[in-house]
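Help needed: design a sequence for this.
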């Protein structure tokens, strides 16, 4: 695991964007795993700017997102579909039919998780997976206790996660209580992982991800077992 410390949120975002940019321009074909949440927001901004300034052709890029809330339609303002459209896809020219997220409004959720896992496999797996981390050490929406051999699945969100994400909704009651997420094995199958961590509220989760014994109770500790993880963390998260 390579740990790169940077001064602040913006420095983290620029370095992350540069890392993804380099991978895009140096690949003949690339499957990018993408994350949502507040952490990667500025990375998407910088990345879109770099790609547009240099008029980079993106026809070789495919994207698969980590997760989506259950029960929110694609056009719901707080759905991850909307997040990705607003913050990234609408700003760059990745072909529309190359971008994928789980369908949280699917009637048959079991069929949907199976479809999504198959889709990732049919793309040839993820080359570079961008990740954030929850305060309780979750990655994607894999909450503490999720089996390490999990594939894409439906999860019940913990109270901590529901409360943490309530800031994006009008009231906490509007936060969905379930989500579809790539599983821990799905994430570990990515050839490279880029984990972004910012802010003092993530300090404990980061410290534990690096130093705690690997345990299903602390999902992010599984990353200690991956061969190619780069962590970009800012001073507040590292202090
Ligand atoms: N499902 C997302 C994760 O993918 C994200 O990494 C994490 C941290 O979010 P934030 O970056 O807003 O702190 O929680 C959310 O629940």
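Sure. Designed sequence:
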């Amino acid at each position: 695991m390579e740990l790169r410390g940077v001064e602040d949120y913006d420095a983290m975002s620029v370095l992350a964007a540069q890392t993804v940019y380099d991978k895009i321009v140096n690949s003949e074909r690339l499957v990018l795993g993408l994350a949502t949440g507040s952490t990667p927001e500025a990375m998407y901004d910088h990345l879109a700017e770099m790609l547009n300034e240099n008029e980079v052709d993106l026809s070789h890029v495919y994207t698969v997102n980590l997760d989506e809330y259950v029960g929110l339609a694609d056009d719901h303002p707080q759905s991850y579909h909307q997040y990705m459209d607003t913050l990234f896809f609408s700003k760059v020219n990745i072909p529309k039919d190359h971008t994928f997220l789980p369908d949280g409004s699917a009637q048959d959720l079991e069929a949907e998780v199976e479809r999504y896992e198959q889709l990732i496999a049919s793309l040839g797996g993820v080359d570079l997976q961008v990740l954030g981390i929850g305060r309780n050490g979750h990655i994607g929406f894999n909450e503490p206790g999720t089996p390490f051999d999990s594939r894409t699945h439906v999860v019940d969100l913990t109270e901590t996660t529901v409360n943490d994400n309530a800031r994006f909704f009008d009231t906490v009651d509007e936060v969905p209580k379930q989500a579809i997420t790539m599983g821990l094995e799905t994430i570990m199958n990515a050839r490279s992982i880029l984990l972004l961590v910012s802010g003092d509220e993530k300090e404990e989760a980061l410290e534990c991800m690096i130093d705690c014994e690997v345990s299903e109770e602390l999902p992010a500790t599984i990353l200690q077992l991956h061969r190619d993880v780069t962590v970009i963390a800012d001073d507040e998260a590292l202090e």
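The first strand starts at residue 2 and ends at 6.
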